[in-house]
Amino acid sequence: MTRRPELRALTSVRGLAAWLVVLFHIRGSIIGLPPLAVSILSKGYLAVDFFFLLSGFVIWLSWGEKLRDGGLAAIPGFLHKRIARIWPLHAFILACTVALALLLLATGRHDSVEYPFHLLPLHVLLMQNWGFTETLAWNGPSWSISTEMAAYLLFPMLVMTIDLRRLHAITLGAMIVGLAMILNAVCAHAGNTTLNYDIVRFGLVRCLIEFGAGTAGCALWLRLRARSIAPALVLTAIAAAIAYLWASGLPEALAVPLLFASILLLLALTSQLRGNPLNMRVLHYLGEISYATYLSHLFLFVTFKLALVTDPTAIPSPLVALYLSIVLLGSVVLYHFVERPAQAYINGLAFRIPRMRKARPLAR
What we know:
mainly alpha
């Protein structure tokens, strides 16, 4: 099996999307932010939808063939790698949040009501957004990591059930459209006008559907990549048309998955082009540390406000710049000294299924 080339542009876009989530969460606290910027940043939650599609794309690219060819025996190794990738940093940030909650309790701060200790086991196990709770708690952004964990558990079943490698490009495109229509139907039935509505109830469905669309998108890219220019032009036109329809009233739950799937395919098809600005080293590095950025930024914002901010609804620009610098520095430190070492350690643990010892024949 040939080794897949890294699509550096996708890694870079992941970093930019992570920073969009950061700005989304602090937009209401920045003094003097222009209304247009507020309006744009208010849609920053949609970066998570891009994450879900991108995750499905990358997981299919990395593991689709291995699981399909390796069968049931390959599943433990897949889950081992995925847990090593997402759990250690999540556990570290959760532990920091627990320490903060205990400090708030010890000092009599009412902020501690946001940290329900009886739900902590679900968060440790990354099961907090599987329908067992009624509110987001502890480290808010980890809700999406919880739903990603569910997607990883179901992914081998998808691989064993449908061999996307054998499907025609038109069929794969129809799958993406069909999944977007299902997500829109779910949202419409519940009266959801945005994808950010009631994350506790709908976040899991949102993730699983978009993750599935991402896997179909990867299979489609594998069919189109040999003649990348013509499909890239078609996808540009499709993305522009969907964006126009969204602005004209197409529901967000239908428009966004289709738009992001088109953009993701377009980015993948053009990733290897010479001079692609998304292949710049600095942008690629932001993508590499993006998981640390995403998981840590809200915890850092809470502690930053407790330490330095008097009015959390009106933070001056110098303090905003300081906070963003702290997030960047924190992401670098967490990536190099927590995320990567812990991932390497867990990946290095031998995962063996014990063999049954043969019974000795009875003596006669």
